[in-house]
């Protein structure tokens, strides 16, 4: 006799279906799991036998073989305890009326028969929901159901409950679970609570609107970190598609509690981070910060202090929105479309630009420090600014300033303008020189002005393209159809590279 059902495991960040086949025959009592199950999968047989016994199902004189298909792929984690127990119960004849073949289930069993939640539940269901008729899951995953309204979900927290469902599915009532409230703005700082720095806030508003990568420079303690932490609160909320992508990544990484409702994620790795920590890796694959910042913000404080290979590895996500990771079985590609928010001091000791402290660095030290900002990366950063140290008077009596939700509103409107111009999910930051020429509606007088700047100040064509993209965003923030000279003048303020 054979029974089959659907379970799941992970290949890196990607959930994969596992066909669980169980065969029982009379003979010396044995329990074998074959099909490249890793240690924790194989150890499951002790948990499963004990949990079944605790639920009154004794495997007397039974030779049980469990096959996990496809047999040539490793399965790890504790996801398969419940589907294996489920198929064994089916074979024991307790589930006469339920066809378990197209049921997806997961959960870790305890020796007493209780079923524990697993990490990655959302990612598994997102990947497999079209292939299944019913989902059986621990009730701790009840929040998953709101994303899959058409799916029949049965919650079980103990094998007793699974048995009750299998014996009489129509009469089974899932245990109720209080719904977790999804909060917004739970941890981020409101823009209005950051004192002073009007120009920096304005630049971040422009950056959020056009998805321009940002560089903030200045001596330590001027407020770069504070601004970075407040930044997610002015970004538009994630739409359903972005939310599902991000939830899948965080679910598979066991980090779902780090998400704040619809607010884009913010990752702020330390400059001692390793390359695998940033791009992802390890034997049990972990997502790196590039992928965890997908659809959100990657804040790299003390940017030139990051390892050279990390700074170079940024090129691929900044250009393609993905990161490639080499693993034993080949090259894997993971999503990594984020906004880069880089921050740096002006010199290695940090005191340069601080009127109250003296810089101890030589000219060579400073040159070497800034050389780490390689050209291809700096070419991707559209806006940058040197932050001044706040005078005490401004800290003590802050002037009135706009709240995050007010700015977010303006940013959302500017994004709508860009969608109309470039198409869904496209922003000014992605526009090429030809696209700007065709669709950005740059006023002839503005073009003449740009020509003057290129002639007199010898700015490169690349940097002028950046200025045009940013000027287009500034015009979009004002819902202005054409790019005027005043927009270009403002955009020119957000470029510090030439001064360095
Ligand atoms: Zn210095």
Describe the protein's architecture and organization.
The structure is a single chain. The protein is α/β, with parallel strands linked by helices. The protein has 3 domains: 2-171, Ribosomal Protein S5, domain 2 (2-Layer Sandwich), CATH 3.30.230.10; 191-410, P-loop containing nucleotide triphosphate hydrolases (Rossmann fold); 431-500, Orthogonal Bundle (Helicase, Ruva Protein, domain 3). It is 36% helix and 18% strand. The chain is built from 20 helices and 18 strands. It has helices spanning 39-42, 44-54, 81-91, 121-128, 159-167, 198-210, 224-230, 240-252, 275-279, 289-292, 308-313, 315-320, 363-371, 375-378, 392-396, 404-422, 433-439, 444-457, 461-477, 485-493, and strands spanning 2-11, 14-26, 30-34, 62-69, 103-105, 108-109, 115-116, 134-137, 152-155, 213-217, 266-267, 280-281, 286-287, 297-300, 322-327, 330-335, 339-344, 381-386. The protein has a 5-stranded parallel sheet. It has a 4-stranded mixed sheet with strand order 1-2-4-3. Strands 5-8-9 form a 3-stranded parallel sheet, sandwiched between helices. A hairpin with a 2-residue loop joins strand 15 and strand 16 (330-335). Helix 4 (121-128) packs across helix 8, helix 6 (198-210) crosses helix 19 (461-477) and helix 19 crosses helix 20. It is elongated, with a radius of gyration of 28 Å. The termini are far apart. The structure holds zinc ion. The site of zinc ion has 8 residues, from loops.
């Amino acid at each position: 006799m054979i029974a089959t059902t659907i379970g799941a495991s992970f290949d890196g960040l990607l959930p994969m279906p596992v066909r669980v086949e169980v065969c029982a025959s009379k003979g010396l009592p044995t329990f074998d799991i074959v099909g490249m199950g890793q240690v924790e999968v194989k150890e499951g047989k002790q948990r499963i036998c004990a949990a079944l016994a605790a639920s009154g199902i004794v495997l007397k004189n039974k030779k049980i073989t469990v096959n996990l298909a496809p047999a040539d792929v490793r399965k790890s984690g504790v996801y398969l305890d419940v589907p294996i127990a489920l198929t064994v119960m089916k074979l024991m004849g307790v589930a006469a009326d339920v066809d378990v073949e197209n049921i997806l289930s997961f959960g870790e069993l305890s020796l007493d028969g209780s079923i524990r939640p697993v990490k990655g539940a959302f990612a598994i269901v997102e990947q497999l929901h079209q292939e299944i008729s019913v989902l059986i899951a621990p009730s701790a995953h009840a929040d998953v159901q709101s994303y899959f309204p058409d799916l029949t979900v049965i919650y079980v927290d103990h094998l007793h409950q699974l048995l009750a469902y299998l014996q009489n599915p129509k009469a089974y009532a899932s245990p109720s679970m209080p719904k977790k409230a999804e909060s917004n703005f739970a941890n981020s700082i409101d823009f209005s609570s950051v004192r002073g720095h009007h120009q920096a806030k304005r630049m971040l508003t422009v950056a959020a609107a056009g998805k321009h990568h940002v560089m903030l420079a200045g001596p330590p303690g001027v407020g770069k970190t504070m601004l970075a932490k407040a930044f997610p609160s002015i970004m538009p909320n994630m739409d359903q598609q972005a939310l599902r992508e991000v939830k899948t990544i965080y679910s598979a990484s066991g980090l779902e509690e780090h998400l704040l409702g619809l607010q884009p994620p913010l990752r702020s790795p330390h400059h001692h981070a390793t390359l695998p920590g940033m791009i992802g890796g390890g034997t049990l694959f972990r997502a790196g910060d590039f992928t965890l910042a997908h659809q959100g913000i990657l804040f790299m404080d003390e940017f030139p202090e990051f390892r050279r290979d990390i700074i170079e590895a940024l090129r691929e996500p900044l250009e393609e929105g993905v990161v490639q990771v080499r693993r034993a079985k080949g090259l894997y590609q993971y999503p990594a479309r984020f906004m880069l928010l880089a921050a740096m001091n002006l010199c290695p000791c940090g005191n340069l630009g601080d009127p109250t402290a003296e810089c101890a660095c030589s000219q060579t030290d400073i040159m070497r420090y800034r050389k780490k900002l390689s050209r291809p990366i700096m070419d991707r950063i559209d806006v940058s600014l040197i932050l001044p140290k706040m005078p005490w008077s401004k800290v003590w009596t802050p002037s009135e300033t706009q709240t995050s939700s007010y700015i977010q509103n303006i940013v959302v409107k500017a994004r709508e303008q860009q969608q109309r111009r470039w198409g869904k999910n496209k922003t000014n930051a992605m526009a090429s020189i030809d696209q700007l020429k065709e669709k950005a509606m740059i006023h002839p007088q503005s073009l003449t002005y740009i020509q003057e700047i290129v002639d007199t100040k010898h700015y490169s064509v690349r940097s002028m393209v950046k200025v045009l993209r940013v000027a287009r965003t500034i015009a979009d923030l004002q819902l202005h159809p054409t790019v005027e000279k005043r927009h270009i003048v403002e955009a020119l303020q957000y470029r510090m590279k030439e001064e360095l």
